[in-house]
Amino acid sequence: MPLSEILLLGQVFCLTMSTILILMQNRGAGLSSTFGGGDQVYLTRRGIEKSVVNLSVLFIALFVIIRVIALYV
Questions:
Q1: In 10 A of CB 66, how many CB atoms?
Q2: Domain segments of the chain: what residues?
Q3: Is residue 41 predicted with pLDDT exceeding 80?
Q4: pTM, whole model, 2 decimals?
């Protein structure tokens, strides 16, 4: 398997995982909070929510690194 195909598979995997992780983040839950419906205050992320955010940032950073490498290969 050529290196370009491995890098392509890595990009697809990172984008798929980051999409899933971003969709798992539930902040505000709908358009009602956009128009003033939600009076909830979020101060810190804890537990699994913090892990999901950190993993999504990690997969996005990995995608950027793999993409830059793929540009030079």
A1: 20
A2: 1-24+45-73
A3: no
A4: 0.75
